[in-house]
Amino acid sequence: MSEQKIDGFELKPGFKGMASDTGSDQTMFKGVHWGKAMMWIFLLSDTFVFSCFLISYMKGRGSTIVDWPNTSEVFSLHVGGVPVPLLLIAIMTFVLITSSGTMALAVKYGYEKNRKMCGWLILATAVGGLTFVGMQVFEWSKLIHEGVRPWGNPFGAAQFGSFFFMITGFHGFHVSIGVIFLFIYTYKVFAGHYDSKKRGWFTKMKGDYVEIEILGLYWHFVDLVWVFIFAFFYLW
Amino acid sequence: MSEEYDNNKSYQAQSSEVLDGSAGSINPDMDYVRPAEIPEQDLYHAHSFIEKWIFCQDAKVIGVQYFLTAVFTGIVGLILSWLMRLQLGFPELAGFMTAEHYYQFVTMHGMIMVVYFLTALFLGGFGNYLIPLMVGARDMVFPYVNMLSFWMFFVAVAVLMASFFVPGGPTGAGWTLYPPQTILEGTPGSGMGILLMLISLSLFVIGFTMGGLNYMITILQARTRGMTLMRMPLTVWGIFTATVLAMLAFPALLVSAIMMTLDKVLQTSFFMPTILKAGEVLEYGGGSPILFQHLFWFFGHPEVYIVALPAFGIVSDLISVHARKNIFGYRMMVWAIVGIGGLSFFVWAHHMYVSGMNPWFGFFFATTTLIIAVPTAMKVYNWILTLWRGNIRINTVMLWCLGFIVTFVNGGITGIFLGNVSVDVPLSDTYFVIAHFHMVMGIAPLMVIMGAVYHWFPLVAGKMLHEGLGKWHFWITFLGAYSIYFPMHYLGFIGVPRRYFEMYDSPYMTSAVGMNEFISIAAFIVGAAQFILVFNIIKTLKTGKKAEQNPWKANSLEWYTSTVPPEHGNFGERLPVVHRWPYDFSVPGAKDDFIPQTTAPSEVANTEVEKT
Predict the structure, then answer these.
(1) Which chain B residues in 214-243 lie under 8 Å from chain A, judged by CB atoms?
(2) Closest-CA distance of chain B to residue A80, Å
(3) Burial A84-108 (b: 16+ CB within 10 A, else e)
(4) Same domain, residue pair A100 and A200
(5) The Cα angle at residue A187 between residues A184 and A193, in degrees rounded to 5
(6) CB distance from B262 to chain A under 8 Å?
């Protein structure tokens, strides 16, 4: 549906176009696949979830009675005995942003019906995501090893651990769900389910390469959220 | 969908291909409707009993499933309210009840009625059943996700009900679940009870999100040919806007539920300040209880409109159909719904005037709260003006609608009282507040639900509910509800506090005792009267009069399905094509007093129809 021609309807640019699309019958977002529209609206809702988390974090950090831990010390890695702040997190961020790039390429090759390239790129994205989750596990275990717990830590306000584990955990959960779907889609692409329009296992709906773009939207969103978490936790 | 709408008209385009040619952009034909731009929906038909009635993907069956589950929880909520009234009116008869029980009943009654009954009934029940039919779609756009949505709701209800049977019982913290007392020892159900409540709420939010995505995309992206947004029935507008609110407000509830679960399970202190208990400092410290109140009411106030907006929409349609007159100011009604929805995100702290907030903050929220009265009052005027000089049928449906207008205006006016900081502070936590929100978001939407049940039952079941029983049901409920809530305003003014298990020897007892007994008796009668409807439905299903197609002579698409009740796919081989709004009633010059949305302009060329 994404490349559909719209009969008897003139797509105008700008605000006028928005008004005429809104005022028309059948669809508001012309030529937009149902699933794609759904993902956008889901992401809007999810944005509110993460906003609530981050605003709560700001409020919580602003109203603690004990000082907040010095994040550049807590999050630093020791390389050859020298503490390097932001090292691990820079690598994590780099991996995740790179996986967004491979995802975007996978969408492009998907629409070009280049099954092999599309499959390999989705696999690369999945591996990137998995690496990210792995590094997060490493960071969590390092912090836990140093005595940071959800209910307290030796460096300062107890809320540091509470918010850190909750918010990065919630984000990591999003990444993990994405990774699972990326692996499923890798299989589906290599098995040619989108070329043969094979019906889904559960939904019984016909497969289409647009699904990759929909998953891509989710993946980019998860990356974008990470940028905010990065800024709020590691740079503040 | 390449079939043309009407074979008899030779000048009509034969297929979408033809329109690509010369006549595509400028078509002089007055009946012209743009060809379909979305392909026919790929429907999965059920193959077995389980697929057809249990794990069903048909929005209509899912709607009925939602409806029945919500009504079941509603009856539980009703029984809890009986128990509360027994204690308040006749404490000597309620010897089995302790203060802990009372708080648990208050909490569960509130949570059940607001979230699991009204929200699920309006959005899950009416939304699922009516949206695809009213916008001319074959089904919701993601039937499988829709099915999951119901079952997630079902599990949420099961978890909620399970909390009655765990050690310590359900939570008794009040439906607002304010920390820190909610999860501290001493509050009833502070162990498993609150945990199950928080899990159940999270499941509800997840389930609702799946449903809400369906409702929104179906309305935005799957309307039939000719169905513009401004030709949709107001029911759809109400449910749509409520869904948008829910998609943006429920995240705050989910986040607060997660954070409180962690406070409970992992001893984090998101909402927990330093607490002294029996001279000992608890492990908690440094959290902010006010943060929870902000999160909760950022959800809680839009939640009021999540319940109210579908009611506004549905009642507009019912009034228009049964007054045989177009809805007065349709566009104004739409913009009022959207405006109320938008404003509802900027008023939440009016629930927190006594939380110790900065007076300027309260001033801001009082202002926004009172601004909401403007679009709301516009809607009330428009309902009255729709009735004005209409050809009103005083049937059961119309009675419920009139009852709605009266109770809603009543509750709305007391809302103006409570919206002002200086008036709210003395009235806060008294029975005046109980009277206000039960009138405005309890009784008023319930009146609409009842009217909607009597209105759409012929469509869902193919049989007409008994009118006489319906009128008895209405009058007992209407007069009874006034008997319950009107005296409560007075109780509030004399200062009777809410959520008190017992009044002991307080000075206002003498005047409040008789009134409490009266209210309780009325509550027992009104509650029992609801079973008239249950009886009516069972009787009608067994022996009721078979309904003709479109018994109310309405215009909207749900009455123009291929069969009654509609089958899977709703409209048979061809989807309807829409040429007008659904409110062309009593049009001067028309043959009948109603013109269905599917009637082509050339068929009613000599009438004075509205241009829509």
Answers:
(1) 216-217, 220-231
(2) 35
(3) ebbebbeebbebbebbbebbebbbb
(4) yes
(5) 105
(6) yes
Query: A144 and A91 share a domain?
Result: yes
Whole domain around residue A161: which residue ranges? Answer: 34-235
Q: How many domains does chain A have?
A: 2
Interface probe for A, chosen from B206, B260, B268, B557 (most Cβ of A below 10 Å), is B268
Q: What are the residue ranges spanned by the domains of chain B?
A: 394-547, 552-612
- For B220-234, give the DSSP string: HH---TT-BGGGS-H
pLDDT in tens, B456-477: 999 999 999 999 999 999 999 9
Whether A107 and A3 share a structural domain: no
Under 8 Å between Cβ of A207 and A33: no
pLDDT band at B426 (very low <50, low <70, confident <90, very high): very high
Place of tokens 């302790």: B98
Distance from B263 to chain A by nearest Cα, in Å?
9
In this prediction, residues B111-135 reach a mean pLDDT of 96
pLDDT of residue B4: 41
DSSP B187-219: STTTTHHHHHHHHHHHHHHHHHHHHHHHHHHHH
Output the average pLDDT for chain A. 91
pLDDT at B1: 39
For residue range B516-533, list pLDDT tens digits in order.
Answer: 999 999 999 999 999 999
Q: Which run of H or E residues covers position A79?
A: strand A77-79
CB within 8 Å: B247 and A65:
no
Summarised one tens digit per residue, pLDDT across range A130-183 is 999 999 999 999 999 999 999 999 999 999 999 999 999 999 999 999 999 999
pLDDT given at position B42:
87
Cα B562 to chain centroid, rounded? 28
Q: Which of B483, B412, B407 is nearest to B443 (CA)?
A: B407
Say whether residue B266 is in contact with chain A using an 8 A CB cutoff.
Answer: yes
Nearest CA in chain A to B146: A203
Rounded to whole angstroms, the Cα distance separating B116 from B131 reads 20
Q: What is the pTM of this model?
A: 0.93
Instruction: State how far residue B299 is from chain A, nearest Cα, in angstroms.
Output: 11
Whether residue B26 is predicted with pLDDT greater than 60 in this model: the reply is no
* CA distance linking residue B595 with residue B593, whole number of Å: 7
Residue B150 near residue B207, CB atoms below 8 Å: yes
Q: Of the candidates A24, A50, A9, A28, which has an alpha carbon nearest to the alpha carbon of residue B240?
A: A28
Q: What is the 3-state secondary structure (H, E, C) of B486-549?
A: HHHHHHHHCCCECCCCCCCCCCCHHHHHHHHHHHHHHHHHHHHHHHHHHHHHHHHHHHCEECCC
Buried b (16+ CB within 10 A) or exposed e, B170-195: bbbbbbebbbbbbbbeebbbbbbbbb
- Torsions phi, psi for B546 (to 5 deg): -70, 135
Helix (H), strand (E) at residue B161: helix B143-162
Are A19 and A103 in the same domain?
Answer: no
With tokens 């249950």, the residue in question is B534
Residue B454 pLDDT > 80: yes
Same domain, A103 and A9: no
Terminal-residue alpha carbon distance, chain A: 44
Backbone φ and ψ of A78, nearest 5°: -95, 115
B241 touches B338 (CB < 8 A): yes
Backbone angles phi, psi at B463, to 5 degrees: -135, 150
Same domain, A115 and A185: yes
- Nearest chain B residue to A203 by CA distance is B144
Nearest CA in chain B to A56: B291
A104 & A184 share domain: yes
Chain-chain contact of A206 with B259 (C-beta, under 8 angstroms)? no
Average pLDDT over residues B288-307: 95
Same domain, A18 and A81: no
